[in-house]
Amino acid sequence: MTRVAASALEALGxxxxxxxxxxxxxxxxxxxxxxxxxxxxxxxxxxxxxSNNAGNGDDALARLVRDGRVRRIVCSFPRQVDSWHxxxxxxxxxxxxxxxPQGNLAERIRAAGAGIGAFFTPTGxxxxxxxxxxxxxxxxxxxxxxxPIRADVAxxxxxxxxxxGNLVYRRTARNFGPVMATAARRTVAQVREVVPAGALDPEAxxxxxxxxxxxxxxxxxxxxxxxxx
Amino acid sequence: MTRVAASALEALGxxxxxxxxxxxxxxxxxxxxxxxxxxxxxxxxxxxxxSNNAGNGDDALARLVRDGRVRRIVCSFPRQVDSWHxxxxxxxxxxxxxxxPQGNLAERIRAAGAGIGAFFTPTGxxxxxxxxxxxxxxxxxxxxxxxPIRADVAxxxxxxxxxxGNLVYRRTARNFGPVMATAARRTVAQVREVVPAGALDPEAxxxxxxxxxxxxxxxxxxxxxxxxx
Amino acid sequence: MTGTTxxxxxxxxxxxxxxxxxxxxxxxxxxNLGIGLPTLVGDHxxxxxxxxxxxxxxxxxxxxxxxxxxxxxxxxxxGKVPVTELPGxxxxxxxxxFAMMRGGHIDxxxxxxxxxxxxxxxxNWSTGAPDAIPAVGGAMDLAVGARRTVVMxxxxxxxxxxxxxxxxxxxxxxxxxVSRVYTDRAVLDxxxxxxxxxxxxxxxxxxxSHAELEELLGLALGGAS
Amino acid sequence: MTGTTxxxxxxxxxxxxxxxxxxxxxxxxxxNLGIGLPTLVGDHxxxxxxxxxxxxxxxxxxxxxxxxxxxxxxxxxxGKVPVTELPGxxxxxxxxxFAMMRGGHIDxxxxxxxxxxxxxxxxNWSTGAPDAIPAVGGAMDLAVGARRTVVMxxxxxxxxxxxxxxxxxxxxxxxxxVSRVYTDRAVLDxxxxxxxxxxxxxxxxxxxSHAELEELLGLALGGAS
Lengths: 229, 229, 225, 225
Known about the structure:
The complex is a heterotetramer, with 2 copies of chain A and 2 copies of chain C.
Chain A: E1 3-5, H1 8-12, E2 20-23, H2 33-42, E3 47-50, H3 60-66, E4 70-75, H4 84-91, E5 96-99, H5 102-114, E6 118-121, E7 135-138, E8 141-146, E9 151-157, E10 160-162, E11 167-168, H6 177-183, E12 184-191, E13 193-195, E14 214-217
Parallel strand pairs in A: 1-14, 2-3, 2-9, 3-4, 4-5, 9-12, 10-13, 12-14
Antiparallel strand pairs in A: 6-8, 7-8, 10-11
Chain C: H1 14-23, E1 30-33, E2 52-55, E3 59-63, E4 84-91, H2 94-102, E5 108-111, E6 115-117, E7 122-123, H3 139-145, E8 148-152, E9 164-165, E10 178-182, E11 186-189, E12 201-205, H4 210-217
Parallel strand pairs in C: 1-2, 1-5, 5-8, 6-9, 8-10
Antiparallel strand pairs in C: 2-3, 3-4, 6-7, 10-11, 11-12
């Protein structure tokens, strides 16, 4: 059963030091901004973060990195024009980076959620990112063995939730949310609106409520073109 | 680009003898009845069929089996109260059976569509269905290595298509359609209605048109409770 | 988790067994009920329990059988029986549905069985008869995928032989996957860690003494009162 | 597939390169345009070509940049630039989006590059600079996932060195994955099977002779006219 929380901090719940935290979003789209702010306020440290990017400007993830609260980041694209805090921490050796091709990141997260122990993929074969990994030629194609990426908590942003925890997303803000929601012990979703159970089309649900431990409605702040009530 | 065909036979197109054909459906729900009828009329033989079941009563798949046109079937649940034709062919040694746990069937089909060369799963470990397969203990769990299942043609039934080949399904008739559509060289979908591109909600599309070679609108015959225009 | 109780009248009917299984399902749980006997459990979940039923053919939020006029051939459960859709339901395809099961997201899975071993091995897909037409369906995925897999079955075969055994003789569905067995004569815990001596442990008996159970099964059992 | 032509005036502008790439994209194809230079190709696809654009952050049916008033921060491409939605579009999550790419469903992928080797090896994610902040994104998935991967780049670096090389010296993105390279001075086929002698093969030249190309690249090239 999904909790409907009254604030981002209440939705976040307890996050132990050293926890692995997945953070949805691709660039600004789908970033659970207020939940990461809540994580900043919560105080957990020694975190492992799994996220496509490593923070922009002074956003909450960037401040977590700046403040030395992220021990390690698993990420496909840390470099941004404004990833100052990550860049500084990385150059100073204050943060460990596991650089993962974006498709491997998505598929390894899915594998964790789907109970797959490991899988072979051609992506990365023969490149520095596959160094030291087991390889095998399958059907004539050289492949690399990749393993699941799990988390203690996943923080995602969706468009709407219902009281059963079902989520629908909006446009390209969907990105990592649905796979991360399956791969964490607890998934917390911030949404624009929580509607009653039965108010979402069951055919259009993207993340079934079984994957969602808590939802919180936040107005979000960002104006979205063409989004009505 | 997806073809909008005028008949089931035109949608089916050319199926060479010896082809591997995926057939959607779980029990009666989602069975592409008219497309399998078209395959029967088409005449291709020596087929490998991938399908959850192996035909009921005198349905088209059962008749393909009866007439000796299916060399091999990859299937999770051939036994039905009315699977007479399969039962007879199997007992007479006229058909080869690869019995696959339903979750492995789905995941192996997905793997083919997703470019995964092989994957480890706990399902079936220590059972007769995993005999002879490679095993490995991962994170303390004994697992079996499973390989992709591909097809030359997938026949699926959806609810609606748009002119771009996007598909939406209906209730539990969704079942194998979306994964099979990704795993075949050509996917042919029978639907109740083809609507213009843009008439389906892009957030609710289940099978993107990229996976669909042809669609055909057929009224289907089965009365569906609660389905309006 | 009622602990060992004294014999209380007769063996259980199927509905009483289903009620006993239902009583152990936590409020708010996500549950998969296997085909056959376990489907009865759905009728005994108390209203307001917040239990959500999963059916592996692609749905969460499955409701009871429809009235005859509301039967929809596209809304069926894994046993191909018509069901209904509850508010908050969702549909998904086979790979997503089994990912949900295989990824450990279903809290409780209730399965039928031909045999369960004291180590929790399960045999429920094949009678092993040489002329049988095989069929496995989702059994192997369900057995090892859920957080907790329990079995609901008669204690004895029609011929009176035990179905809870030292070692399964029928083709296996999964190894060490069952943690509790609900039968008409007793509820027993099985599997790794349930007993330091490796026995099945009696949780509750119905119209039968501990000694009689051991006699029926030909096994030494833990949990003697 | 125009075959070798004679030099025709000057080297190509970026837009001319994009038009040249677009001219080779079959009608009805599903295409992914990498970030940077390749995104220009979208502007040169003829109306009615039926080409559908995929963006790996989770969309098929991507349209051009919106008018400033229609910018939606939740509708962006893989370069995080605002785009629009065309009729027939669909959205999907990252695993489904990369399954589409990695499963060989995208007909053509156009990527930028730092270096391409005559064997079709690609280096486009790292300059190898010791103090560089790394970033790979979807490059490695795109390189090996599409049915046909082509590269769009200037033939030479800013310093005048060749970007089409015998062996890549920068960290690799993928092995033997590129089949054609579109540059400002020539279009060349590369990769396994394009030439019995293992050379890159000149398809078309722009303002430069075959011998001059060989001289610029320091490579023997096939396709001399």
